[in-house]
Amino acid sequence: MATTAIEAKGLLVVVRFLDGKIVKGTTHDFAPNKTDFHLCEKGDERSHAREIDCNSVKAVFFVKSFEGDKEHQVSYGFDRVGGQGGRKIEVRFLDGEVIAGFTMGYTPQKQGFFVVPADPDCNNTRVYVLNKAIAGVKWL
User: Fold this and answer.
1) Residue 3 above 80 pLDDT?
2) Which of 46, 97, 122, 138 could form a disulfide with 90 if both were Cys (CB 3.0 to 4.6 A apart)?
C-alpha cells in the first residue's frame, strides 16, 4: 500500500493551549491514552519534534489544512451528516469557545475524548478535547 503525502509528513494538527497559545504542525505519535506527544511545527524544515505535555493543552484539532476557510460560517449540520456514529454533544470550553459534534467516548474521569464536528464543511476532521479545559457538556 502506498503512503500518502499526509501520512509521510504526519497528521496535520492545530494545538490550542490552556493559556491561549496556538501551535500548528504535524504529529506521528498522538494517542488519546498518552500524556504527551511530539509535534513538528509548521515551517520547521529541520524536523525537530517538540514534546507537547497534555497537561497544558485545551484541545488538539485534526485539520484538513493549516489555512482553513476564514469566511466559513460554522453550522451545526447534524441533519446533513448521514451515518455518523456516536452521541450528539455540545462542548463549552472554559474560555467560552463552543464546539458541537458527535462523540463515542465522553467520560469525565478520563484525560479527554474525541469529537467529530457536526459541520461537515468545517476544517476540522476531529477534535481531541481535554476534560480539564471544559466548563461543561450538553447532550443534544
Assistant:
1) no
2) 138
Burial classification of residue 8, based on how many CB atoms lie within 10 Å of its CB (0-12 exposed, 13-18 middle, 19 or more buried) = exposed
Task: Specify the number of domains making up the chain.
Answer: 1
What is the distance between the alpha carbons of residues 73 and 96, in angstroms, rounded to a whole number? 18
In a domain, 78, yes or no: no
DSSP result, the chain: -PPPHHHHH-EEEEEEETTS-EEEEEES---TT-SEEEEEETT-TT--EEEEEGGGEEEEEEES-SS--TTPPP---GGG-TT--SEEEEEEETTS-EEEEEES---TTSSEEEEEES-TTSSEEEEEEEGGGEEEEEE-
Prediction pTM value: 0.87
Q: How far is CA 134 from the centre of its chain?
A: 14
Q: Which domain holds residue 88?
A: 5-67+84-139
Q: What is the pLDDT at residue 86? A: 86
Q: Which three cell numbers stand for residue 138?
A: 450538553
Residue 14 included in any domain: yes
